[in-house]
Amino acid sequence: AQKIPSLKDTFKKDFGIGTALNNAQFEERDPQMTQFIARQFNMATPENIMKSALIHPKWDTYNFEPADKLVEFGKKHNIKINGHTLIWHSQLPSFIRGIKSKDSIQTFFRDHIKTVAGRYDGKVFSWDVVNEALNEDGTMRKTVFLDHLGDNYVTEAFRLAQQAAPKTELYYNDYNNEKPAKRAGCIALIKKIQAAGVRIDGVGIQGHWHVGRVPLKDIEESILQYAALGLKVMFTELDIEVLPRNFQGAEVSQRMTANEQSNPYTAGLPDNVQQQLAADYEALFKLFLKYKDNVTRVTFWGVNDGDSWLNNWPIRGRTSYPLLFDRNNQPKLAFYKVVALKK
Ligand code: G3I
């Protein structure tokens, strides 16, 4: 069989190619998987293990072991690690729920950023310092941090991260921040950080989109507007959902013809959806290439379809197909369309 082209090599001169990783992958439980990851990707983001609930389970207890392993994995395979994430309202340690006083939240906030960002300075390439602080209308999302620390908390998080991690790039990350109203809020937030003289190096657009509905115009406008602030623009959690929200994936394969089921490019999807998925990824990468001077990284939220969080959301146990590689790490039609852009 012919060797599968490498994404990271294909786009080497343009932008980094990343993936989300979990324990099984960075612990190298499957040597073939390790080889595959090292060949396809030069950047990685931990899907869960650096979130506060996992890395900081108790007031005075941190669990650094998985993150340390991830850092080792990155070093060994020349993969830059993006820390994800220091301040997020979700996947918080359970002890946070019991906290009622402003002082204690303040203490958690300071200690957490100082300890975690400090430990990995020079070891990770970058951090998503704050994740998902905005509502869809661009206002600040109501979170435990907003409630107790006020709407300056985002700037303060970056200030603390800058002190603790002077060698690490610092990013703001969100979803739907390519849409005009949320984008305006995001720009205001970034300007506020910059006006305080605090460093912010980039903005992440997560990129959880839906097949046939990828908002290319908004994305292009966002690249331009964020770049105008002097920031790197990254697509940080890219996947394209192919199932309707309340739809079990099994129903899709039941509708497939025998031909569709045995077609290697189909990888479990009806032809028409597979074609649309490929067209969407192709259009996206065309846009990323057009702005390669501003777009520095494109990270997929999972190595292959089998890893994707969309198999469990909003319903557990569905079967989705949102990525470039199928469950056996075989490239889908979308992969070949994307790679062909560089030929
Ligand atoms: O580890 C436990 C396991 O012990 C338990 O048996 C199992 C059953 O409930 O749950 C496991 O934890 C799950 C964890 O993923 C690891 O698989 C959590 O329930 C589940 O909520 C968690 O989901 C993650 C989600 O963030 C949490 O909000 C997804 O994997 C992860 O892909 C997703 O990632 C987020 C980004 O961080 C931020 N942007 C949106 C993106 C998608 O939601």
Identify the strand order in the major beta sheet: 1-2-3-4-5-6-8-9
How is the CATH topology named?
TIM Barrel
| Overall number of domains | 1
Beta-strand content estimate: 15-25%
Can you give the helix content as a percent range?
25-40%
Output the CATH homologous superfamily: Glycosidases
The kinds of small molecule bound in this structure are: ligand G3I
Order of helices and strands: HEHHEHHEHEHHEHEEHEHHHEH
SSE topology sketch:
Blueprint (H helix, E strand, L loop, with lengths): L6 H4 L5 E6 L1 H4 L4 H10 L2 E4 L5 H4 L9 H13 L2 E8 L14 H18 L6 E6 L12 H6 L3 H12 L4 E6 L5 H16 L6 E4 L2 E3 L5 H12 L4 E10 L8 H5 L3 H5 L8 H20 L4 E6 L32 H8 L3
Parallel strand pairs: 1-2, 1-9, 2-3, 3-4, 4-5, 5-6, 6-8, 7-8, 8-9
Helix pairs in contact: 6-8, 8-9, 13-14
The structure holds ligand G3I.
Question: Can you give me a brief rundown of this structure?
Answer:
Helix content is 40%, strand content 15%.
